[in-house]
């Protein structure tokens, strides 16, 4: 007998599921019931859908599969950070991280297997991009971390950052669909204000998000406000220049009135001079901005080195003097390679 290729049922929208049931001569609301099982209750099999008849469940089983991620390995850091190695249905692996603090639990999720971009200081960039994650694969990472947060910290997940593997804007549609599910009452019902999408900065897509009036927050990995320097460490900057980025961000702010966060690592001999700081201050002027100074997490080749405390202090002082909010972010989970830029499926 010819094997029928079963469809991934979670790729269907609620409307498509309703239509499917109608086309089978059943009631459209059956589609709602199944949709609820798939998303709100994260069902892994049709068998658990107890308000659906056995006959219908068998019919679904014959036509569809329910793809789910599998947390293959969970590692816990001495500081409480948890890293999940997440196996996808085609056996590729991505990583996601749970970062606990006193008052919140943040999930750091991946959007691609590998990455489309080529930042010289990032371990994920070396994997190249293998494929984009589907909306359900992004959503499932969040559900897995929410469960871990409840289990280990007795509280639900409070925040999500798209700072895992991949460039979220290079997987624009799926990332936005996943966020829709995460924020919808039919999914996890989380507030979009607790979600941050971090991008290396694709001007056209930043404008598109602004036009779509998205409600989540935006973070931009800037690392330098001087084109020549930025291009040397983030080569795609040659194509998406700072002038274009700035114009797109200005547009973003006009439309959303949402403050922009810049992520920034200070490296010795790369961006640790007064000229670098002045360029950053100037870049921050056109819209309310916050600068997150991130500690560098070495990725083994010695090309980059965290700048001295003195250089970082000068950044902090100068930014503050110019009325720009600045935070110093300590790395979490370094002992398990879970910190920013270290996600590379090493273990
Ligand atoms: N592609 C997206 C999101 C993933 S990277 C982006 O570029 O924003 C998440 C953050 O970690 C980015 O700010 C990135 O610049 C930073 N990062 C990458 N490698 C790092 C490293 N080795 N040490 C510290 N931060 C790093």
State the main characteristics:
347 residues; alpha/beta; ten-stranded mixed beta sheet; two-stranded parallel ribbon; 33% helix; binds S-adenosyl-L-homocysteine
Provide an overview of this structure.
There is one protein chain. This protein is of the alpha/beta class and 347 residues long. It contains 10 helices and 14 strands. It has a 10-stranded mixed sheet, covered by helices on one side. It has a two-stranded parallel sheet with strand order 1-2. The longest helix is centred in the middle third of the chain and has 19 residues, at 135-153. The chain is elongated. The structure holds S-adenosyl-L-homocysteine. S-adenosyl-L-homocysteine (SAH) is lined by residues 119, 121-122, 163, 167, 198-200, 221, 263, 265, 294, 296-297, 299, 340-341. S-adenosyl-L-homocysteine (SAH) binds at residues 119, 121-122, 163, 167, 198-200, 221, 263, 265, 294, 296-297, 299, 340-341.
Concise summary:
The protein is built from ten helices and 14 strands. The protein has helices spanning 14-23, 29-39, 54-63, 135-153, 172-183, 203-211, 227-233, 242-256, 274-283, 309-321, and strands at 7-8, 64-65, 70-76, 82-87, 93-100, 105-108, 112-113, 131-132, 159-162, 195-199, 217-221, 260-265, 289-294, 325-329.
Structural class by helix and strand composition? alpha/beta
**Biggest sheet, open or closed, and with what strands and sense?**
10 strands, mixed
Total helical segments:
10
The ligands found in this model are: S-adenosyl-L-homocysteine
Q: How would you sum up the global shape?
A: elongated
Strand percent estimate: 15-25%
Record field, number of beta strands: 14
- The sequence of SSEs as H and E is EHHHEEEEEEEHEHEHEHHEHEHE
**Order of strands, widest sheet:** 3-4-5-6-9-10-11-12-13-14
């Amino acid at each position: 007998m010819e094997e029928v290729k079963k469809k991934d049922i979670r790729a269907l929208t609620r409307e498509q599921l309703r239509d499917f049931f109608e086309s089978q001569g059943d009631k459209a609301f059956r589609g709602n019931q199944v949709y609820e099982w798939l998303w709100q209750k994260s069902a892994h099999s049709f068998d658990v859908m107890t308000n659906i008849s056995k006959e219908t469940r068998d019919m679904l089983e014959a036509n569809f599969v329910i793809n789910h991620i599998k947390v293959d390995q969970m590692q816990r850091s001495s500081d409480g950070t948890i890293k999940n190695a997440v196996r996808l249905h085609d056996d590729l692996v991505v990583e996601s991280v749970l970062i606990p603090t006193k008052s919140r639990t943040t999930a750091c999720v991946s959007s691609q297997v590998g990455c489309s971009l080529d930042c010289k200081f990032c371990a994920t960039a070396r994997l190249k991009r293998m494929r984009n994650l589907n909306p359900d694969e992004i959503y499932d990472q969040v559900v897995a971390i929410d469960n871990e947060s409840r289990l280990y910290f007795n509280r639900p997940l409070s925040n999500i950052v798209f700072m895992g593997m991949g460039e979220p804007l290079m997987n624009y549609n799926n990332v936005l669909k996943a966020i829709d599910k995460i924020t919808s009452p039919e999914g996890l019902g989380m507030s979009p204000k607790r979600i941050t999408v971090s991008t290396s900065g694709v001007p056209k897509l930043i404008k598109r998000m602004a036009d779509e009036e998205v409600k989540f927050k935006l973070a931009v990995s800037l690392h330098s406000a001087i084109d020549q320097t930025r291009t040397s460490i983030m080569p795609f900057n040659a194509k998406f220049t700072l002038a274009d980025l700035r114009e797109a961000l200005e547009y973003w702010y006009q439309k959303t009135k949402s403050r922009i966060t810049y992520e920034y690592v200070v490296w010795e001999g790369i961006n640790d001079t007064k000229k670098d700081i002045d360029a950053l201050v100037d870049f921050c002027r056109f819209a309310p901005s916050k600068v997150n100074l991130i500690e560098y997490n070495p990725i083994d080749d010695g090309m980059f080195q965290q700048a001295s405390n003195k250089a970082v202090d000068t950044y902090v002082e100068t930014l503050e003097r110019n009325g720009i909010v600045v935070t110093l972010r300590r790395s979490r989970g370094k002992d398990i390679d879970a910190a920013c830029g270290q996600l590379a499926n090493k273990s």
